[in-house]
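I hope you will forgive my troubling you with a question about protein structure. The matter concerns a single protein, recorded as an amino acid sequence and a row of backbone structure tokens. Please examine both parts with care and let me know of anything in them that strikes you as inconsistent. Here, with my thanks, is the record as I have it:
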Amino acid sequence: MKEIEDRSICAGIVLFNPEIPSLIDNINVILHQVNEIVLIDNASLNIEQINLSLCGYPNVYIFRNEMNLGIAKALNQIFEWASQKGYAWVLTLDQDSFCSPVLVREYKKYINEGVGILSPIIHDNTDEYALLAKIVEEITSIDECITSGSLTSVTIWEKVGKFNELLFIDFVDFDFCIRVRLQGYKILRVNNTYINHQLGSKYKLIRLPFGMNFKIYNHSVERNYFYVRNNIYYIRKYWKHINKTYHILRLIHWEVRKIIFEPQKIQMIKSIIHAIKSSSSIYKEGI
């Protein structure tokens, strides 16, 4: 398979109050693999420090939103910039993700017209998912992937209707993935490359008797609202194409954990009720 030219791939990162040393490390790794990087800042409080830290970086462009417009809007801004610049593919990264130094080189081996997204092995820094060490296949066809570390076709992004800005944050990636597959394109995981990625905020470990330990992620009440609302939207919209029983039980499981073990119990319950009520309005708007 003929490799594409390097000019066809750029990278994009959404920023929201990033830890600058981690962001610089992230950029240093990816800058050697693509020609240009675009950063969309969602009203970070430390934007002046970000600008100062990156002012000497070649081919790194920063655009700032005056308010936090959400991950979906920022991702669309990245792709719109890439489209205007003539790029065919965009590598999206979280501000705290670190990719393999040969990520793009490995991806280029599997680009073809039938592929919408290429995704790596995810090594989660919280150890929620173990690094897959014994995979025989070079690539695996998968149903969904997170945006961090993914290489996505600009043409297919446009064709499937871009990222859903109604969702703001949670389920933006899974909603996009299912639309890619419903259009007949493949999502491939490239098993010989990886990113190190942390899912959300730092977790706390709940220790129960008989070794029944599990993790609770310290999401804010506002973040929990989006998680519940968008989860319900996703289930309602795509119930014919997903295991809806699994998703419903998983949602209930996570929310019961939060109510029992998180300190802001009343606020969490209120956020769940509010999310259930508002899910109907975004469902009607999004269909």
